[in-house]
């Protein structure tokens, strides 16, 4: 099988880590029978300054018409509003209907404060308060601002369905590094339906229905009110497996969860639709370390594996995860954000060797 992958490095260290991701794909063991072709694509603030748009049509069209998946680095956002500029990754999610944002957070034996964390946040990515339908009204008592929180059965169903599928698949991919305290896949539905009985109520009900399907009979389904979810996530992160949430709660939970494992340079994500997946490290363009050759490539390498998972290549993904875990556990080649002295290249070489 040959997969065509769009490479969108973007700005800053995106240009350092995306080439590392490409090397991983090029170096997969030949026993996997997987080949890749690549197409370099533009997006980001640099692209905006050059061309007047952060996301050229050509990038979108090439992804749609030619590619099976993509890797996205990071983009810089100006700290003050610049006319005409808007985030290309947000636009890409819309244009390609990438309705799920998937963020695994995991420790390894060598990279944990004692608690083995191995969870995934699955965030709905198309609706909720982020439909951005807001308005402000002048009243005799002063201004009042309102926003629409839109929750649909369709979006709630498909996000819960994919969360269930991820829970099942994780059982296959974990290489003996599964949390030993848990022997059954689990999905935790997060909501606030005790207060928002219609919107979050619909999310909760629909998630329950989606996860009651026969194919998920081996999945344990539980639920948490979002505030207590935050408390438990920080007290007892080792308890969780897959957490599914509407857009806003998922946004907050996924950044919070990333803080559980130390460096941003470790945390991958994927933007997933029915026919496409974009792997994307969670970090930004890191201007403070740009050009020094010390950016941590692990978040990107894990994003490569995550993309492959969603393209149906679980075996390849599992091998990449194992190689990364091996690198972290050996702790011989770590970049400065992890307390080491290694360069991006040395970490990449070590992972490639293990692969
Ligand atoms: P950042 O994630 O770029 O950096 C935060 C801190 O983490 C910095 O000290 C950086 O050196 C470190 N760091 C991040 N990734 C690392 C890696 N791979 N290896 C080693 N250290 C790493 O976030 P910051 O500084 O808030 O934002 C910088 C720029 O990135 C801004 O323009 C911001 O808008 C943009 N950004 C873009 C994101 C995206 O493309 N998805 C996400 C977050 C920020
Ligand atoms: Mg966020």
TrEMBL record:
Cofactor(s) the record lists: Mg(2+)
| Sequence ranges assigned to domain Isopropylmalate dehydrogenase-like in this UniProt record | 4-351
Q: Which reaction does it catalyse?
A: (2R,3S)-homoisocitrate + NAD(+) = 2-oxoadipate + CO2 + NADH
Q: GO molecular function of the protein, one example? A: NAD binding
Cellular component aspect of the GO annotation:
mitochondrion
The record's top EC class is oxidoreductase
**EC number in record:** 1.1.1.87
Q: Which PROSITE patterns match?
A: IDH_IMDH (PS00470)
Q: Which family does it belong to?
A: Belongs to the isocitrate and isopropylmalate dehydrogenases family.
Q: What is this protein called?
A: homoisocitrate dehydrogenase
What is the scientific name of the source organism?
A: Penicillium bovifimosum
């Amino acid at each position: 099988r040959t997969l065509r992958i769009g490479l969108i490095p973007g700005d800053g260290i995106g240009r350092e880590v995306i080439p590392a991701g490409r090397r991983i794909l090029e170096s997969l063991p030949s026993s996997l029978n997987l080949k890749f072709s690549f197409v370099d694509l533009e997006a980001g603030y640099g692209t905006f300054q050059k061309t007047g748009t952060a996301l050229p049509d050509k990038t979108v069209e090439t992804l749609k018409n030619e590619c099976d998946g993509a890797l996205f680095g990071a983009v810089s956002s100006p700290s003050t509003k610049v006319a005409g500029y808007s985030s290309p990754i947000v636009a890409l999610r819309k244009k390609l209907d990438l309705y799920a944002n998937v963020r695994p957070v995991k420790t390894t034996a060598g990279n944990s404060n004692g608690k083995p964390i191995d969870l995934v946040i699955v965030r709905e990515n198309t609706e909720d308060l982020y439909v951005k339908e807001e308005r402000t009204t002048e009243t005799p008592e002063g201004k009042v601002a309102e926003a629409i929180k839109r929750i649909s059965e369709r979006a709630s169903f498909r996000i819960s369905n994919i969360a269930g599928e991820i829970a099942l698949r994780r059982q296959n991919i974990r290489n003996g590094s599964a949390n030993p305290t848990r022997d059954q896949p689990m999905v935790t539905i997060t909501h606030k339906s005790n207060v928002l009985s219609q919107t979050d109520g619909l999310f909760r009900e629909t998630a329950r229905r989606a996860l009651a399907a026969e194919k998920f009979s081996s999945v344990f389904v539980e639920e948490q009110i979002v505030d207590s979810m935050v408390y438990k996530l920080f007290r007892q992160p080792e308890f969780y497996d897959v957490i599914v949430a509407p857009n806003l709660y998922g946004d907050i939970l996924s950044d919070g969860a990333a803080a559980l494992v130390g460096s941003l340079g470790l945390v991958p994500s994927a933007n997933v639709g029915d026919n496409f997946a974009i792997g994307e490290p969670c970090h930004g363009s890191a201007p403070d370390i740009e050009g020094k050759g010390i950016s941590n490539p692990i978040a990107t390498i894990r994003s490569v594996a995550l993309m492959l998972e969603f393209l149906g290549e679980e075996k390849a993904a599992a091998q990449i995860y194992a190689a990364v875990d091996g690198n972290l556990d050996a702790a011989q080649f770590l970049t400065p954000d992890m307390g080491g002295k290694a360069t991006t290249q040395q970490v990449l070489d070590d992972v490639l060797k293990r692969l």
